[in-house]
Amino acid sequence: MTEPKIKIENLYKIFGPNPKSVIGKVQDGMSKQELLENHGHVFGLKDINIDIPAKGVSVIMGLSGSGKSTLIRHINRLIDPTSGKMIVDGDDVLSMDKDQLIEFRRYKASMVFQKFGLHVHRTVAENAAYGLIVQGKPVSEAKQLSQKWIERVGLGGFEGHYPSQLSGGMQQRVGLARALSTDAEILLMDEAFSALDPLIRTDMQDVLLGLQEELHKTIVFITHDLDEALRIGDNIAILRDGAVIQQGDPQDIIMHPSDDYIVDFIQDINRSRVIRLKTLMTPSTSASDSGPELQHTMNLELALPKIANSASKSATVVNEKGEVVGSISLDQIISGITRPDVDTGSSETRYR
Ligand SMILES: Nc1ncnc2c1ncn2[C@@H]1O[C@H](COP(=O)(O)OP(=O)(O)OP(=O)(O)O)[C@@H](O)[C@H]1O
Ligand SMILES: [Mg+2]
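YS: structure for the whole thing
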């Protein structure tokens, strides 16, 4: 197996006057409430273990206060853990000295913030070049290098504008251009699109996915929005009260929610748009005689009419190379779309 790009191991964070004095108790399972009431400390993160692979989009999702920002800020050590390890590319981030850390933040891991983090008195061009200027590049060279990214995020022609003259979506494009200009392999995005209107937000997700197809960065993306997580995540870790309660790929989480909390979490998503044929199909290498041939990455929403309209009410599933990898029936599609918490046993279908 290849080494993860970022390895988070047994990470704990406790906030309060003397976290080290209570870490043992927390590791032994003391509750959040007891920690607060009897010891005056706040739970931040509890025994986090996540391997973040290179060149993928890893989403960390959870409700407000679940510890998402606390976690992502450990990756570039804006926060020090109470105990645990943070390894990036085999290097121990926690043992880096001040200079190494500055280097790490400038060249290795760029951050994109929810509130955009732009300098209001600087133009788009100056903001986009900022990361490079901080790296020590002369201003003219920095601007020249970042121009490509201004254009790539769709802001060509706006170089001389100030942030206040731009919409939220455009401001976040500047934030993205700034992060991309530094050439950092890792992008840390803390609710980067959460302040945007739904349509603009979907646009920005598309921009990010388009860039990612080309650039293959290691992206750690924080969101409290499951639809966003499912749309862009190659893998997802779900946090609750500072602990990871499930991690896996999106298909895995939808098909096998680990507990009632996750079941509640996923109940409103559009299953037919998220679940792909490869998740539901019956593996097989022989094609059926009738029925259409469908790509294994196709979602159920697109596959359903094709299968429903076929005489056999089934389809052959193929991979990118056109090789047969399975078969799928209308019944399988329908059971995949049906939520696991829906009682199908009674005559009256009941939703929780
Ligand atoms: N400096 C701090 N001192 C004390 N408690 C803190 C501190 N920073 C965070 N916390 C606590 O840690 C928990 C997690 O906070 P965090 O900001 O990581 O949540 P979040 O998931 O990012 O939430 P949001 O979605 O609202 O941004 C919260 O209970 C918060 O009160
Ligand atoms: Mg946060």
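YS: worth flagging: The CA atoms of residues 170 and 350 lie 44 Å apart.
IM: good catch. Also The first helix runs from residue 19 to 27.
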